[in-house]
User: Fold this.
Amino acid sequence: MLEKINQVAYKIAIYIRLSKEDKDRGYDESESITNQKALLLEYVQKLGSEYELVDIYIDPGYTGTNFNRPDFKRMINDIESGKVNMVITKDLSRLGRDYIETGEYVEKWFPEKNVRYVSVTDGIDTFATNNGNNDIAPFKSILNDMYSKDLSKKIKTALHTMQQQGKWVGGKTALGYTKDKNDKNKLVICEPEAKIVRTIFNMATTGNQIGEIRDFLNQNHIPTASQIRYQKDTFWENKAIKNILTNEVYCRYYHTK
Assistant:
């Protein structure tokens, strides 16, 4: 139970974050945006009349090692303007996973602004006296940072392994390919787009320069990738053609398809 240090009104900011990495690693459902919000709202409701919830700040899909998050910055601005003087998160890692910058906020910036910080599941309350959990907060930040770096390393290693196995690990596919509906790591040929790619390679192998290929495509109204996929009014440029001719995806599969 929180100690009532001073009989003053606390203007509360609930801060919630869930990163893509959290989702990718098969996160506990309790970490979801919905459940973080439910937990923190229940916590605030039990605090008493001197505590007022000002706003809920949510950053979905933002890593904890980067503090350049839209709603986090909005919360900081509200603290600066005096709108907020208490911040509550589910746990310390929701605030951030970079132990240096997280420590700067918890140990220095918040105290300088007279902001009370509470991490519910960690039992951290920077305004509570004789709270041993406050003393171990820096070590929790270090562990969160180490976890984030280890996770990043594992993800990079896994992606590299998949690439070596010939699996697709990118986002947007190259012109002429689409992801297999049954396997997102497998590319299949998109025949209407593939005809354009074959035209470019055939012209290049018969001695046409990039500028000549560009003019042919534009003069014959052959659509660009942006026209096909996003209905954007664009035209062929040298860079786009060069990217196709030097793209490993095409170089690897072109002559076998």
Q: What stands out?
A: The CA atoms of residues 21 and 63 lie 7 Å apart. Residues 1-5, 137-152, 253-257 have pLDDT under 50 and may be disordered.
